[in-house]
Amino acid sequence: MLIPVLLGMTIITFSIVHLIPGNPAQVILGEAATAEAIADLEESMGLNEPYWVQYGIYFMDLLQGDLGTSLRSKAEISSEIWPHLAATIELTIFAMIFAIVIGVNAGIISAWKQNSWFDFLAMIIALVGVSMPVFWLALMEQWIFAQELGWLPAYGRQDSRDPIAAITQFYVLDSLIHLDFERAFTILKHLVLPAIALGTIPMAIIARMTRSSMLEVMKSDYIRTIRAKGGSQFLVIYKHALKNAIIPILTVIGLQTGVLLGGAILTETIFSWPGIGRYVYEAISFRDYPVIQSGILVIAFIFVMVNLIVDIMYKIIDPRIKY
Amino acid sequence: MSEVILELQDLSTHFFTDYGEIPAVDRVSIKVHKGEVVGIVGESGCGKSVTSLSIMQLIPSPPGKIVGGEIRFKGENLALTTEKRMKKIRGNEISMIFQEPMTSLNPLFTIGNQMIEALRIHQKISKKEAKEQSINMLKRVGIPRAEQVIDEYPHQLSGGMRQRVMIAIAMSCEPEILIADEPTTALDVTIQAQILDLMRILNDEKETAILLITHDLGVVAEICERVVVMYSGQVVEEGTTREILKDPKHPYTQGLIKSLPKLHEKEQKLYSIPGTVPKPKMDRKGCRFASRCERAFDRCFQVDPELFLIEGERKSRCFLYDEKKGDGIDRAASSIRS
């Protein structure tokens, strides 16, 4: 299942880039280039080969981890893309931790105390959370917590006057490797605002999904059985009901993680977060086709991988699921 | 007769819905003695399941609520006890099995996990001991390859096997009473007989009283010593199984027994009681069965009949047995013979 999807993705990204009007050689050499110069460059770039040969070369390069060269920086995309990808993954991990911890627990308590004041409050917050535009939330956070209160930094991944010697490009991990806990704390502080901005919508969706899924499960016969066995409410909810309710919640978590990994351009721009969203966005404004193509491919690849992990987790949770 | 261990006294459970208050269980009194098998019989919606869930304090609440009466279990009134105390009683002193063996076990945990959990809620024993006890219990309820089954998931077992597992779980803490809410309804006939046999064996061995809820008079005849017939939230007749089956007093019970298919009679069409069970509602005047009763008279529509004592423990909620209105008995007696 995974292989045809990935193969299809390479074909689609390849085709889209080739369907875009304009000749890359012309773009590189500029308006004033002569026809001979363009033909020479096309020759050297392999652009005069038939499409399927070009795709074959591209695909073989891909298999070796070669994503091509950026037109703008002339650097290898595969090495250039990693720091951006790591920045996005790190932000997504923290945003999703925030979303899952709060969303799942709020959903559980809402279902447990259905129609209580907590339930109403949590569901109102969830409704506001899904309806709120991310850019507005991000700006409000910056205004309140950075501008007015001065508690947290508003921009970037770290203190720019004192950059970290990156190893893995995951800055929290890097600073822990260096045993530099003070730096780790600073980097965590930089993560708070963007993670909350990014995690709010997933949190709201997860909370609502958890609530409805739990309510559904709580009505089932086996929950009654556990009560009849003398099981406590805690055992009923956190062991038996949650495990049964978790599958739709996991699906939502998987999809939301994929969305955050690929589509956080707005948040990354507001918080000057050097992530993959901004990397692709900048490539689009410079018409850097190889970067756009690679960026889309990498995002799609991650999306597929996240969902693969979710599928594997289904199987672990529910013994009845067979592939 | 041995001591009474469970006694319901005028138990009333009402449901508070958008359509008003519904008296699902209306002043029900039932006694269960030690080691006795008592059946509660009635059609769907007559309140028999709600009665059993009320004893366990497992009524979905809201909307359900016990509004009156007592549930005396070994002298203690469960209707007034705390949830904490109920947790100690459930599964330990009073156990329950349900109609749907297919959905009554959590599909995501192994049989062993769910059995060990039941033991460890009430007893301070190690997982290893609990597992050994569980395997023994599975063997006792007649599960072959118990050592393997304990590590299997519910979906790998058949309905009959799952009901055996449910019984094993319910009996694992050696309760005083087992409440069985239609335990055989979802099973096919051969498995039904096996499950009933199993329950009878456990009843003999451990002197566990069984409160069996069913709509099947065949099941009652098979296993019960005493029967309580319920109709529209009320007890309408009470007596030993033999008395009820041979000589039903209440017109409703008579109708139920008449509607059983008989092997030796070649009737074209089975008898059925005309009409349907009226929905229970508050402030109903008169006998609940009156509108379907072939022998109802004026008084039946105006006054709520009480449970008249006929003789010994034999009771019937029908004016035909009201001694103050002597003419009823003669009429009843003549109609039974006919």
From TrEMBL, chain B:
<keyword id="KW-0472">Membrane</keyword>
<dbReference type="Pfam" id="PF00005">
    <property type="entry name" value="ABC_tran"/>
</dbReference>
<dbReference type="GO" id="GO:0005524">
    <property type="term" value="F:ATP binding"/>
</dbReference>
<keyword id="KW-0813">Transport</keyword>
<protein>
    <submittedName>
        <fullName>ABC transporter ATP-binding protein</fullName>
    </submittedName>
</protein>
<dbReference type="Pfam" id="PF08352">
    <property type="entry name" value="oligo_HPY"/>
</dbReference>
<keyword id="KW-1003">Cell membrane</keyword>
<dbReference type="GO" id="GO:0015833">
    <property type="term" value="P:peptide transport"/>
</dbReference>
<dbReference type="GO" id="GO:0005886">
    <property type="term" value="C:plasma membrane"/>
</dbReference>
<dbReference type="InterPro" id="IPR003593">
    <property type="entry name" value="AAA+_ATPase"/>
</dbReference>
<feature type="domain" description="ABC transporter">
    <location>
        <begin position="6"/>
        <end position="257"/>
    </location>
</feature>
<dbReference type="GO" id="GO:0016887">
    <property type="term" value="F:ATP hydrolysis activity"/>
</dbReference>
<dbReference type="InterPro" id="IPR017871">
    <property type="entry name" value="ABC_transporter-like_CS"/>
</dbReference>
<dbReference type="InterPro" id="IPR027417">
    <property type="entry name" value="P-loop_NTPase"/>
</dbReference>
<comment type="similarity">
    <text>Belongs to the ABC transporter superfamily.</text>
</comment>
<dbReference type="InterPro" id="IPR050388">
    <property type="entry name" value="ABC_Ni/Peptide_Import"/>
</dbReference>
<dbReference type="InterPro" id="IPR003439">
    <property type="entry name" value="ABC_transporter-like_ATP-bd"/>
</dbReference>
<keyword id="KW-0547">Nucleotide-binding</keyword>
<dbReference type="InterPro" id="IPR013563">
    <property type="entry name" value="Oligopep_ABC_C"/>
</dbReference>
<keyword id="KW-0067">ATP-binding</keyword>
